[in-house]
Amino acid sequence: MTASARKRYYLSALLAAGLLSAFSFQFFSLFGQAPDWWTQQGVIDPAATPDDYAAANIGQLKHIATQATAEMNAKLPGGAGEAINALVTSWQQPPAEGVTHDDFAALNLGQLKAVAKLFYDRLAVAGYGGPPLADGQPYPWPSDASGTDNYALANIGQIKHVFSFTVPSGPPGFVDTDGNGIDDNWELAHFGQIGIDPTADPDNDGLSNLAEFLAGADPNAAAESVPPASLNLIVYSP
């Protein structure tokens, strides 16, 4: 069976089973070019033949989400954030007693949305509003969706579409070679080296090194008071 015939077969099968919702997701093959980080992070195999209509599994979602996390940790000040990093770390831990990790299990749209939502919430903090987001939409699926299709099976093209965002870089001059979310120049200025622990608090003022960096504070001098709002400011424009 040729690749085009196989795609038609999968599409026909999904439509016949009522598992494909054209109102919730677009297929990546109809969308556009893959973002550069897919190649840089090893998301796709350039030698493989794309089969965007093939059913997706849990392991494939974990793989692309893990690589998206690495890209965010490398480019965004503050990295991918606690929620995303905790989720990815949990996938790498042995399962709890009575729980199995079945990466070959079929993926449904609800599971895809639940994971992707964390990434778009983080991108929103960074000011991202590019593809695949429509104007004014926080997520790449309709905000008024009823959720009745959440148990429908997802396919490869839908995973690609949802994770086809471009991770914005930090401000001009921002360099984070160690991936800890803190600018290398800031680390060198305050510690004389890079690779510091972003969660450490050397001045014991209750603010981590990462929080001090984002607030523009001195990590080696205890802050008498730091306006809470200052820690929530977007400190760069992607």
Low-confidence stretches: 6-31, 225-238
How many helices? The count is 8
In terms of DSSP E residues, the strand content is under 5%
Percentage of residues assigned to helices: 25-40%
Class based on secondary structure composition and strand pairing: mainly alpha
Q: C-alpha Rg, in Å? A: 20 Å
**What is the N-to-C order of secondary-structure elements (H for helix, E for strand)?**
HHHHHHHH
The tally of domains stands at 2
How would you characterize this protein structure?
- The protein is mainly α.
- It has two domains: 3-162, no CATH class; 184-232, no CATH class.
- Helices cover 37% and strands 0% of the residues.
- It has eight helices and no strands.
- The longest helix is centred in the first third of the chain and has 18 residues, at 58-75.
- It starts with a helix and ends in a 23-residue tail after the last helix.
SSE blueprint and pairings:
Blueprint: H1 3-17, H2 36-40, H3 58-75, H4 82-91, H5 109-125, H6 156-162, H7 184-191, H8 209-215
Helix pairs in contact: 3-4, 3-5
